[in-house]
Amino acid sequence: MLREEGQGDAARTGLTLDAAPAAETEAEAAAEPGKAPQPLEERSPLPLHRKICYAIGGAPYQLTGNALGFFLQIFLLDVVQLEPFHASLILFLGRAWDAVTDPTVGFLVSRSPRRRCGKLIPWIVASTPFGVFFYFFLWFVPSDTLSMSLKFLWYLAMYCFFQTCMSCYHVPYSSLTMFLGGNQRERDSATAYRMGVEVLSTLVGSGIQGQIVGSHHASMQKRCDAANGTSLGNDTALLTATLEDTRRSYMVAATALGCLYCLSCLVIFFGVKEQPGPLSPLGKARLPFFRSLRIILSHRSYVWLLCGFLCASLAFQLAQGIFAFFCTHAAGLPGTFQHLVLIMLVVACFSIPAWQWFLVRFGKKTAVFVGLSLIIPALIVITLVTHNFLVFAFMVALAGCSLSVLYLLPWSMLPDAVDDFKLRNPTCLNLEAFFYSFYVFFNKFAGGLSLGVSTMSLHFAGYSAKDCTHNPPVILTLRILMAPIPIALLLTSMAVFCSYPINEERRKEIRLEMEASG
């Protein structure tokens, strides 16, 4: 009964595959003799080493993404010394470019053939050297003799090129979840391993970046604060020397993270093999781009999940992007924000197993509501308290516990929505990469939108990188961006998840139907 009703999604949009392409797709899936997909209940458990190698492959996205999230804004404003308007344009236009590249890459991956080493892994390997190259030069500061317009074009180009390479890496990587083998529980376990490694990667990436560049930012602030006690000439020389040291430190950090990027790619290449499934044959998608887009966006479960994920991600990334500024200019804790970031990420890393147990015991929707609500009191206290490192440390620890939910739950819930779609539309095959590309896009879009909004808000508030102290409108803007707006977004996200249709009962039905379809 359910399958007959579910097929209406495809029927209403006129999206069906004829018998010949379907048969050809099945033939592609069984390219190797004797390798036809096995029923779910008969497959061997997912090996531990494959889970770990798969998890390590997710490190580059978090290593680079969180370094950009925590430090790109302050780098462009205080180190490169761009105007806030130019910095916000870079962030806005870069994410607008992502709006094109993520779905496009997802569609191209879904249309690509299955090769000897797989369908998805070749994309990961081919994009890695280019991603490392553009990431390095994103943190490179051109000569000060270069005009502001040319600097703007340099960082916009590097940012867009890097995001394109990251799309070519992360969209096929995230789609691998559906092709690791094993059953629903094994896949959830692999996702938990992945999220644990990604949070650890966030810790490592932000730790490397923060520890290398944080002391230099503190030195810049101290020299700036001491400017009134020195002569103008000596002060200018001291500030210039400190600025050059800070710029070099960003290059060192970029080199270190680039090496880890390459290492993660090698691990996933040698440690993971793609496994086709009963409704995931790893063939070429047959639907045109806009028809594929229309059918996946007509799937109710997926749309609700996207909307809830977007609001929650936007809330976290808005607070993340402004955190270094807030600690330096509003909370009276310059030079300590890198330690607070480490505390938050350590707690997030160790919270992943606890939340995995919680979602198995009480369900994924319950875990979302409990987890997202934890950060709300933390944001309120952080906004109200100043010059108190211990209070901040306790609050960011609480925020870290909530952050781990944002890492784990959306990526654990997405495969359920994709399985639900495949059961309701059994003739629409090989669209997994398209589903994941939009998920990746919305996460990146939230990051770019949050950084762009916060930078533009600082521009209108009168922020200037050359000021040692800032006027009250700037401080007020930082406080509003740190708590009221993220809290409103989190409440909106929880309201959206209330309407998410896949509960634990529906997940059991999906598992049984997937086993029957094998």
Determine the structural class based on helices, strands and strand pairing: mainly alpha
Oligomer: single chain
- How much of the polypeptide forms β-strand, as a percent range? under 5%
Query: Mean pLDDT, as a whole number?
Result: 80
User: What Rg do the Cα atoms give?
Assistant: 24 Å
Q: Output the number of helix runs.
A: 20
pLDDT below 50 for ≥5 consecutive residues: which ranges? 1-42, 230-234
Distance between the termini: 18 Å
Largest sheet data: none
From N to C, what is the helix and strand string? Answer: HHHHHHHHHHHHHHHHHHHH
Shape: globular
Helical content (DSSP H or I, runs of 4+): over 70%
The overall strand count is 0
Describe the structure.
The protein has 518 residues and is an all-alpha fold. It is 77% helix and 0% strand. It is built from 20 helices and no strands. It has helices spanning 2-6, 8-13, 19-29, 48-56, 59-79, 84-111, 121-138, 148-175, 184-225, 232-271, 289-297, 300-330, 337-362, 364-373, 375-384, 389-424, 432-461, 472-482, 484-498, 504-517. The longest helix is centred in the middle third of the chain and has 42 residues, at 184-225. The two termini are 18 Å apart. 53% of the residues are buried. The model is unreliable at 1-42 and 230-234 (pLDDT under 50).
